[in-house]
Design goal:
Blueprint lengths: L1 E6 L22 E6 L23 E7 L5 E13 L2 H30 L7 H13 L11 H19 L16 E4 L6 E3 L4 E4 L3 E5 L8 E10 L2 E13 L8 E6 L5 E3 L4 E2 L4 H17 L6 H35 L2 E5 L3 H4 L14 H14 L1 H15 L2 E5 L24 E3 L6 E3 H21 L10 E3 L5 E3 L2
Parallel strand pairs: 1-3, 11-14, 14-15
Antiparallel strand pairs: 2-3, 4-8, 4-10, 5-9, 6-7, 7-8, 9-10, 11-12, 12-13, 16-17, 18-19
Helix pairs in contact: 1-3, 2-3, 4-5, 5-8
């Protein structure tokens, strides 16, 4: 164990912007111990042991700080399946269709103005047009839907246009019926939540029952109603005040992502992949073949399409459940998690090539891409990011170069160190270990170095630059 005495300013702890009057008076300075991976201090001891590689260091920072009552605001969404009656379900279809119509009509108008070289309409201008549409005889049926969800559809369109001009997204596309149908209630004053009876009141829908799987925490901010695979869901976004989290775990760990092993930790443990799509691939193929033999838009075709959608829903639900359980276990048991900064889009790019320059090993690369996308690497990282922030921990992303080729014992880097996909054997010092474990150990060490550069204000090379995101994750920029 390495014990370091540091000042809390070195840890860059972020304090909520709304402290001021809510801040309590400091009592006596307290001494706390909590884990963090901090190196490169001037009084650090540097110890090297031959053929002894620490896979999970237990590093404790002894910090002296005043006992402030630090609190922060947390936004969280709680999603439930709705249990509407026939009339309510028909109303929700109408409301979703009205929002889709308003979005598409506004997009068509904006597209015409864009092609003519005119300036786009802002949100206020679109809302004025919405009033005209609701009062027009041709689209008077829009008045049957609540006005706030219609305005939110225009706000979504305005956000999509802003993302396009800021080069964050492609040009907005028209919405299709039956794909991600949803509408949103932004005013919490119009929403009533009765958790004791598992029901929620929404304007022009009345009281709707829902499957109460867990308690809603906090004050309701807005509600989104969505439809997927013939089922309706309600997502309740809340805001509540929580204390500044302090990590309870005392370890740091590195993670190596893979196909045979979903996630291998530097302490030697690993999580086997679920491969949800692969498990349902045969059933999905048969359902899609059956749908292709039906007359399009016939009743039998709609039934076959619903069967395909249910299989896709089952695949997605199983994958999300696996990722949530895995990320929760890791975030609760470790104070700092180091991962590779993988660009999944580039890794899963097709190797087919072009007619002039055809690719090689296209079939093998296609199977690898399918496995990577089936496991959901980016979603796993996203969940680790916010869950570690909620626990008071850190997520550090490091460049993935040579993590599986470097010897953690002597530091020798060579492609010959990895004779097989699963075994690592250093040609310099003879160190042997599972290749995924070696990669995780190297990721952990790189994470220590990058986190230390940030904490100690050390000026490193551009390749070692790090930057802390708002959620508390250190993002590396190679």
């Amino acid at each position: 164990m390495i014990v370091l005495a540091v000042h809390l300013d070195q840890l860059r702890l972020e304090v909520g912007a709304d402290l001021g009057e809510d801040r309590a008076q400091p009592v006596d300075s307290v001494t706390i111990e909590y884990p963090a991976a901090i190196f490169r201090y001037k009084d650090q001891m540097d110890m090297h042991l031959k053929n002894a590689v620490s896979s999970m260091p237990n590093i404790v920072v002894v910090a002296h700080r005043p006992n402030y009552n630090i609190r922060m605001q947390r936004l969280q969404a709680f999603k439930y399946e709705l249990r509407p009656d026939g009339q309510q379900e028909r109303q929700m279809r109408r409301f979703a269709g009205s929002c889709r119509f308003v979005y598409n009509k506004g997009l068509a108008l904006q597209k015409e103005r864009y092609e003519r070289g005119e300036k786009k309409l802002g949100y206020a201008g679109l809302c004025k047009l919405l009033t005209e549409w609701r009062n027009s005889a041709e689209t008077a049926w829009l008045a049957d839907a609540p006005v706030h969800p219609l305005q939110q559809a225009l706000k979504d369109l305005e956000r999509a246009y802003s993302n396009f001009f800021a080069k964050r997204a492609d040009f907005p596309r028209f919405k299709k019926k039956g794909q991600r149908d949803s509408f949103r209630y932004p005013d919490p004053k119009q929403i009533k939540l009765d958790q004791g009876n598992s029901r929620i009141f929404l304007p022009k829908l009345g009281w709707l029952r829902y499957r109460n799987s867990r308690e809603v925490l906090g004050t309701v901010r807005n509600v989104t109603v969505s439809q997927s695979c013939g089922k309706w869901f309600v997502s309740i976004q809340t805001e509540r005040e929580v204390e500044q989290p302090v990590p309870q775990a005392t370890t740091a760990v590195g993670i190596d992502m893979g196909v045979i092993r979903f996630a291998t930790l530097s302490d030697g443990t690993f999580y086997a992949p679920l491969n949800s799509f692969k498990r349902h691939e045969t059933a999905l193929r048969k359902a899609q073949q059956a749908m292709s033999r039906k007359t399009k838009f016939s009743n039998n075709w709609k039934k076959a399409k619903a069967r395909v959608q249910r299989i896709h829903s089952r695949i997605g639900n199983a994958r999300r459940d696996f990722l949530h359980k895995t990320s929760t276990a890791i975030s609760q048991n470790h104070a700092m998690v180091c991962i590779e900064d993988l660009q999944v889009r580039n890794i899963s790019r097709s190797a087919a090539g072009t007619t002039e320059q055809p690719g090689r090993n296209v079939r093998a690369k296609s199977g690898l891409n399918k496995s990577i996308l089936d496991q959901g690497w980016f979603e796993f990282r996203r969940q680790l990011d916010y869950k570690l922030a909620w626990q008071g921990g850190w997520l550090v992303a490091v460049p993935p170069q040579n993590t599986s080729r470097s010897c953690p014992c002597c530091g020798h880097v060579s492609a010959d160190n990895r004779q097989t996909q699963a075994r690592f054997a250093c040609v310099e010092c003879g160190f042997e270990e599972n290749a995924d474990v070696v990669g995780a150990i190297n990721v952990l060490r790189a994470g220590h170095a990058r986190f230390a550069c940030e904490v100690s204000d050390a000026v490193g090379s551009p390749a070692a630059g790090t930057h802390r995101s708002d959620s508390g994750a250190a993002q590396c920029h190679p």
